[in-house]
Amino acid sequence: MSNPALRDSKVVLAVTGGIAAYKAVEVCRRLVDSGAHVIPLLTDGALRFVGEATFSALGSERARVSLFEDEDPIAHVTLGRLADLILVCPATARSLGSYAAGISDDLLGATLLATRAPVVVCPAMHAEMWEHPAVGDNLSLLRSRGVTVVWPEEGRLAGGDFGAGRLAGCDSIVSTVAEVIGADKSELRAKGGSMAGLRVLVTAGGTREPVDPVRYLGNRSSGKQGYAIAESAWARGAEVSVVATTSRPVPPGVEVELVETAEEMRQAVQRRRDADVVVMAAAVADFRPSRMSAEKIKRSGKPTTIPLEPTPDILAELAKTSPRGQTLVGFAAETQDLLGNAEAKLRSKGVDLLAANDVSAPGAGFGHDTNAVVMIDSRGGRASVPLSSKARVAEEILDRVLALRSQPECGEEPSNTLEGSDGGGRLPCVGTRPDRDLNLLVSHP
Ligand code: PMT
Questions:
Q1: Using only C-alpha atoms, what is the Rg of the chain?
Q2: Do 46 and 128 share a domain, yes or no?
Q3: Against a cut of 0.90, is the pTM above it?
Q4: SS3 label, residue 415
């Protein structure tokens, strides 16, 4: 089916030499079906796994295979200039290393250096290779230069092995290409490294509060929004920790602690409480059974009620003892009066920034790949992000975090005049961080 973002866009599909090369055939077909003009490019390694004729038949043009034997004497420059996007799928460890090092000893290497178009790479390799620090470092470097990575999944690998490093699914590759082509990549590239030196803690997923050994009270959170924030912070150079109830692929170097209950999440968060930025994207249960039954509750026991007690409020607890300079971000999952409830939550939780989502709106909130949020902050600033990918929402939230961090703290002498302040004396804040609240409203659009 045609995709508006891909229609008439020129995509150079570069296939490198790994067992996953056969899956690029399907990616090629899907891109063409979506309306893209696909020019296949096969490396020598790729030709050991798949045929030139297949890609020439399925692509929009004949496949290119050589830097020197093409009828165009500067094939790499021609391809680099006409591409709206270059997709390297699959990307082997070798091709990533060459690209990171700027080596141009074949058509792909030269084209990647000759282009100003956005580049998307889809790593695929054996688990041991994927976990090698050299691969992580190369990806980190490429990310810092604005390259988009479609993370591999866990699954069956060549030789019957199982582990991380399997090529991402065709759907997520095609949707990432559409998203990157649609986005302003130069703006995203400019953000590389903007969080270098910061420790960022993100929570993700929904807690599970046990009723008995087989049942729990839970919610529908998939962890996608939290992990998207973690990935975005990593791409900006931050040192990232994730405390989550769900496992998802993460970039190399991101620390993940898996927990189950609100109390476990609280303890894991408390251990990292000195982070510079804390983003509580997890859907934490507000109540838990007062007592977990040691045995499975029998149907014959005819239980009609489960007594509940409140869980610890992790975010509110953090806010009370938040170290100076820390930025606390909360989420609000609402189904009505989004702004009213968000404002109440900003105050009751005592956070610097609150991202409120209407989880009953189509395509937003739990489980979706997309979300829409209204952001309000303790300085009175407001902004909304319309329905977009969770990655885009993550970018907007982190932009807002950085903007807040660049302003002087409430009560401090501002280093320069801010819109809405009187340009001197203590900077007023709306937030309810106990040591900072001057209870004044200032609007910073
Ligand atoms: O995970 P996904 O499927 O991608 O879905 C994303 C999401 C909908 C879960 C996410 O966008 C979101 O809204 N997360 C917060 C959900 C939530 O618990 O909202 P709340 O309004 O109940 O809580 C407000 C804030 O307090 C949240 O930051 C929450 O993490 C925090 N909280 C809540 C209860 C509690 N006991 N301790 C807390 O710290």
A1: 24
A2: yes
A3: no
A4: coil
pLDDT digits (tens, 9 = 90+) for 187-219: 544 556 789 899 999 999 999 999 999 999 999
Residue 133: both structure tokens together: 């620090």
Q: Which has the higher per-residue pLDDT, 205 or 443?
A: 205
* Alpha-carbon separation of residue 420 from 125, 236, 368, 424 (angstroms): 53, 29, 37, 11
Instruction: Say whether both 214 and 180 belong to one domain.
Output: no
* Residue with more model confidence, 118 or 235: 118
The reply to whether 443 falls in a domain is no
Q: Which of 219, 341, 357, 439 is catalytic?
A: 219
Residue 397 Cβ contacting ligand 1 at under 6 Å: no
Concerning whether 138 is annotated as a catalytic residue, the answer is no
CATH code for the domain in which residue 337 is found: 3.40.50.10300
Calculate the alpha carbon distances from 141 to 71, 100, 137, 250, 381 in Å: 34, 7, 6, 16, 34
Helix residue ranges per DSSP H, 244-325:
262-271, 314-320
Q: Is 445 a domain residue?
A: no
Q: Does 298 lie in the same domain as 185?
A: no
Q: Are residues 35 and 128 in the same domain?
A: yes
Q: Is any atom of ligand 1 closer than 6 Å to the C-beta of 389?
A: no
Last residue of a domain, one of 138, 163, 190: 190
Can the peptide bond before residue 312 be classed as cis, meaning omega within 30 degrees of 0?
Answer: no
CATH of the domain at 172: 3.40.50.1950
Full domain range(s) for residue 161: 10-190
Ligand 1 neighbour 314 (Cβ under 6 A): yes
What type of residue sits at position 352?
Answer: D
178 and 276 belong to one structural domain: no
* CB-ligand 1 contact for 174 (6 Å cutoff): no
Residues 361 and 282 in one domain: yes
Give the pLDDT confidence of 71-107 residue by residue, as tens digits. 788 889 889 888 889 999 999 999 999 999 999 999 9
Q: Which of 207, 221, 390 to mutate to test the pocket of ligand 1 (most atoms within 8 A of CB)?
A: 221
Q: Do 427 and 411 meet the contact criterion of CB atoms below 8 Å apart?
A: yes
For residue 4, pLDDT beyond 50: yes
Q: Which has the closest alpha carbon to 91: 176, 7, 32, 162?
A: 176
Domain contains 425:
no
Q: 419 lies in a domain?
A: no
Q: How many domains does the chain have?
A: 2
- Position 54, amino acid: T
DSSP-derived letter for residue 411 is T
